[in-house]
Amino acid sequence: MVTTGRVLVLQLYDHFLIITFMTFFPDWRISFSVLGTPFVIAFLIYKWRRRHLSAYNAVEEFLQSQNNLMPISYSYSEIKKMTKGFREKLGEGGYGTVFKGTLRSGYLVAVKMLGQSKTNGQDFINEVSTIGRIHHVNVVQLIGYCVHGSKRALVYDFMPKGSLNKYIFSSEESMFLDNEKTYNIALGVARGIEYLHRGCDMQILHFDIKPHNILLDENFIPKVSDFGLAKLYPIEDNTICLTAARGTLGYMAPELFYKNIGGISYKADIYSFGMLLMEMVGKRKNLNAFVEHSSQIYFPTWVYDQFNDGKDIEIECATEEEKEIVKKMIIVALWCIQMNPSNRPAMNKVLQMLEGEVEHLQIPSRPPLSSPERVIKNCEDNSSQVWLSSQTLSSTS
């Protein structure tokens, strides 16, 4: 890729620069003391600026080379104008800050100003090059982008209802999602992911499906968003290689950490969707140490045990039809979070299960994870054990 090549050249150039300096100043320690601290600082600033500005140029060069596939390129002055000087902040996180904006046509947008990148702009390129080619009702639409030196922005459709995160975990009555609406949102998210996996000329693996990355429009139609960790692969590739685990703790598939569990594939997104679906149904985090009974700390195993013991899940003011819908979503979620990736259904099968009758669904094996700090056993044999601890897991998001 262009960026990787450019960065490698820059690193080699930096080494060349240092060697050149040492050639002209053989006794470089004395030279530094003679020339003084200002020279040293100026030299280091020059190195830093050249490395980072060249990396920024590499990002711009790549995007320009892909111009026929990319959305609209905005100047930084246009970004400032559409946000009225970054007046109205919608949200903030490790990724950067999101502001509300208005195009000249009056169309509302969300402008995401990215923070300092740790990957020489690779996350930015990922997002623009993947989501820029996607057009689906359940995937957020990228309208444009801006690259101006170290400043980078992404311009999206404005989602007035915000993220799913604030609805499923809220105790406010005004934020409550009824069971039918929750079910329709689940269907929409599943359709969006299925399109990413099979609807494009390349399979797009998201690697960060979670409530925060599901946005809702004015009609509560869900949109999969945030493609900073996404990867593109040929559709025929059954497994892929990653140099490091990526995603958010609590939604990451176990094979991202432990290779003996199974190969990494689109099934990692299936696992994340299953964890998301569990939280949508339970209206709580899957792992919650503050519940009334210790058996309820890890929701997936608790709800499985309820089913296994022939007990119904208590749902206030729910009709029989709604209870059936909730049961169906739970069973589908249990299939999605199976430890062995090969036991998880593909997303088209997930959709069939969600749209079908609950009587036709079998309950899968009990989720092996009773909590993220317990021992995980290999699905294929019990001879090897690995320790999964929140102390040792790291998220790239």
From TrEMBL:
<feature type="binding site">
    <location>
        <position position="112"/>
    </location>
    <ligand>
        <name>ATP</name>
    </ligand>
</feature>
<feature type="transmembrane region" description="Helical">
    <location>
        <begin position="7"/>
        <end position="24"/>
    </location>
</feature>
<dbReference type="Pfam" id="PF00069">
    <property type="entry name" value="Pkinase"/>
</dbReference>
<keyword id="KW-0472">Membrane</keyword>
<feature type="domain" description="Protein kinase">
    <location>
        <begin position="84"/>
        <end position="363"/>
    </location>
</feature>
<dbReference type="GO" id="GO:0005524">
    <property type="term" value="F:ATP binding"/>
</dbReference>
<keyword id="KW-0732">Signal</keyword>
<dbReference type="InterPro" id="IPR000719">
    <property type="entry name" value="Prot_kinase_dom"/>
</dbReference>
<dbReference type="GO" id="GO:0016020">
    <property type="term" value="C:membrane"/>
</dbReference>
<dbReference type="InterPro" id="IPR045874">
    <property type="entry name" value="LRK10/LRL21-25-like"/>
</dbReference>
<keyword id="KW-0067">ATP-binding</keyword>
<dbReference type="InterPro" id="IPR008271">
    <property type="entry name" value="Ser/Thr_kinase_AS"/>
</dbReference>
<keyword id="KW-0808">Transferase</keyword>
<keyword id="KW-1133">Transmembrane helix</keyword>
<keyword id="KW-0723">Serine/threonine-protein kinase</keyword>
<keyword id="KW-0812">Transmembrane</keyword>
<keyword id="KW-0547">Nucleotide-binding</keyword>
<protein>
    <recommendedName>
        <fullName>Protein kinase domain-containing protein</fullName>
    </recommendedName>
</protein>
<comment type="similarity">
    <text>Belongs to the protein kinase superfamily.</text>
</comment>
<keyword id="KW-0418">Kinase</keyword>
<feature type="transmembrane region" description="Helical">
    <location>
        <begin position="30"/>
        <end position="46"/>
    </location>
</feature>
<dbReference type="GO" id="GO:0004674">
    <property type="term" value="F:protein serine/threonine kinase activity"/>
</dbReference>
<keyword id="KW-0325">Glycoprotein</keyword>
<dbReference type="InterPro" id="IPR017441">
    <property type="entry name" value="Protein_kinase_ATP_BS"/>
</dbReference>
